[in-house]
Amino acid sequence: MKDNPRIWLWIAAAIVVINGFFPAVWILLTSFKTESELTRIPITWLPESPTLQNYVQAFTNAPILRYFLNSLIVAGGATLLCVLVSALAAYALARLRIPNKTLIFSLLVGVSMFPTVTLLLPLFEMVLALGLRNNYIALILPHAALSIPVATLVLVSFFQGIPKDLESAAMVDGCSRLGALWRIVVPLSAPGVFTASILAFVNSWDEFLLALTLMPSQAMRTLPVGIQFLQGEYSFPWPLISAALVIALVPVALVIAIFQERVVGGLTQGGVKG
Amino acid sequence: MTQPQPRIRRSFGDLSERALAFWLLVPAALLLGLVALYPVGRLLYTSLFLRRLTDETGNNPVFVGFQNFAQAFSDERFWTALWNTLLIVLVTVPGALVVGLLLALLANLPFRVKWPIRLGLLLPWALPLVFAGLIFRWFFDSQYGVVNDVIVRLGGERLLWVTTPELLFWAICFSIIWKSSSFVALILLAGLQVIPKELYESAAVDGANRWQSFWRITLPLLLPAILVAAIFRTITAFQTFDIPFAMQNGGSAFETLAMYVRTMSIENLNFGYGSALAVLMFLISFAVTLVYLRYVRGADD
After folding, report:
1. For residue B91, how many C-alpha atoms fall within 13 Å in the half-sphere facing its CB?
2. How far apart are CA B20 and CA B30, in angstroms?
3. Complex confidence, ipTM
4. Residue B297, pLDDT score
5. At a CB cut-off of 8 Å and minimum separation 6, what does B53 contact?
6. Burial class (CB in 10 A: 0-12, 13-18, 19+), A34
7. Does A232 sit within 8 Å of B11, measured CB to CB?
């Protein structure tokens, strides 16, 4: 180890990177192989004659774009709602004198640990009673609510980092409290809002159990539900699934890659489930 | 010049501050009440009734007291699902902690370029559980999977991962550990980064080797972070649903508690009994959460 530390560094880096990437890389390689190549024994590792056929299939035969759109609408709506609501609550928790603050924080953490499956049946009942099954609202509301604890905790720690004097100064200058919130706190906490948004978005984008139960019709499936169902809809679904997975993964991977530092910061300070 | 003074006093005044705080908290409270608190109450209520959407009790539930719970305790499928879930917890929580600690220690080395490492830890976290399940289902495919290919190349026998119950269990555990260890690593990495470097330096001066400083410095100082990660992992592992569901394409040869609750409530439309199962699951999970909250509070004091 003392002889050549650089080599050990390279090996350590390779282990972490390979561990993180090998499933994604394997599915990417799979997506470029033809069905006849995929059903050959012994299997090939690199595609022999790379093809885009599976992607054409995914866009034409399977409604991947529709699933994508559904995921985007649900995750986008849930993120917007969640961050808006959480920002208000976080401001109160970070800045105002509230009795029983510890209790509120405990409640938040406690709620974030409710098993989703135990909420499933009552939510299912509610959605049936309101005739909202296969309606975006049925999924946006629970997804937004489930991310409130994380988003609030992240935002509280950001708000606490903003010097209180700035606000007081603005209020001395004649700003109302809400005015100070809007002009001082909101711009300064943009990174926090952004981090909370990414976490809420990823949570919703990944969620499966509620999406499966509350929006099951073919046209309303989100990506995880839609792609999972491809398994039963084709006798050998893997060419199609691999292409669909790549299509579903690229945007999220890009977001994560661009904003990685903020995501890591938010994850470790919000105490997120994963 | 006296003009702004009263205004400040008013907005900092006790009453308006409380009122403002109240209104700021209302939207979050409403949403959480609607989606989390009301459902739990509703669940407790429904669990006391015989209510099946498939017969007349769907519209006219019959109060049966704790009969649904008595039924659960003598339901072999419930015990099997609970046992399977505990096995998942017992295997994947320590597994993810060990792998996560290893990844965190590696990622904490002084790399000049950090982003590939960070991305290597973030990607498994951001990957939807179902996608991880699908990818590993393909990995462990009995005929065309890469795992069997490697085994055969190394001179072993092709294994029927998906159709042999014990093998399926280990394939599921492998997938869960892979998926969750990077999150553990991120938590532990944050913990490692706040350990003062001077501790290692003075240990080295005192003649401690790397192994000794790991056991004497790193591990004890990292213990709080490890505990937090362990409890988080325990709670999520207890809810395991997506990965076994995806790896079995909705089948239930290996069934966790969450899978059984969903099948009973949503597929079989047995609301009363499904609720009782969910209540039992909720109570177990709640107990773990209480332990966690008590620990976090204790750490704060």
Report:
1. 17
2. 16
3. 0.90
4. 67
5. B269, B270, B271
6. middle
7. no
Using DSSP's 3-state secondary structure scheme, residue A194 falls into helix
Distances (CA, A) of B27 to A90, A105, B233: 12, 16, 30
> Does the distance separating the beta carbons of B39 and A248 come in below 8 Å?
no
Range A55-270 has CATH code 3.40.50.300: no
Residues of chain B short of pLDDT 70, as ranges, are: 1-15, 297-301
Would you call B103 an interface residue with chain A, using a CB distance cutoff of 8 Å?
yes
Are β-strands B62-63 and B49-50 bridged in parallel, bridged antiparallel, or unpaired? antiparallel
What sign does the dihedral B55-B56-B60-B65 (CA atoms) show? negative
User: Please, what is the average pLDDT of chain A?
Assistant: 88
Quote the pLDDT of residue B300.
52
Domain boundaries, given as residue ranges, for chain A: 55-270
Residue B281 sits at the chain A interface (C-beta within 8 Å): yes
Are the C-beta atoms of residues B182 and B174 closer than 8 Å to each other? no
**Which residue do the tokens 């649903």 mark?**
B241
Contacts of B252 (CB under 8 A, 6+ apart): B259, B260, B263
Average pLDDT over residues A232-258: 90
Least CB–CB distance from A12: residue in B14, B109, B187? B109
**Under CATH, what is the fold of the domain B76-300?**
MetI-like fold (1.10.3720)
Contacts of B121 in chain A (CB under 8 A): 16, 20, 264
Which pLDDT value is given to residue B67?
95
SS (H, E, C) chain B: CCCHHHHHHHHHCHHHHHHHHHHHHHHHHHHHHHHHHHHHHHHHHHCCEECECCCHHHCCCEECCCHHHHHHHCCHHHHHHHHHHHHHHHHHHHHHHHHHHHHHHHHCCCCCCCHHHHHHHHHHHHCCHHHHHHHHHHHCCCCCCHHHHHHHHCCCCCCCCCCCHHHHHHHHHHHHHHHHHHHHHHHHHHHHHCCCHHHHHHHHHCCCCHHHHHHHHHHHHHHHHHHHHHHHHHHHHHCCCHHHHHHCCCCCCCCCHHHHHHHHHHHCCEHHHHHHHHHHHHHHHHHHHHHHHHHHHHHHC
User: Does the bond joining B220 to the residue before it have cis omega, within 30 degrees of 0?
Assistant: no
SS3 B52: strand
* Smallest CA–CA distance from B58 into chain A, residue: A125
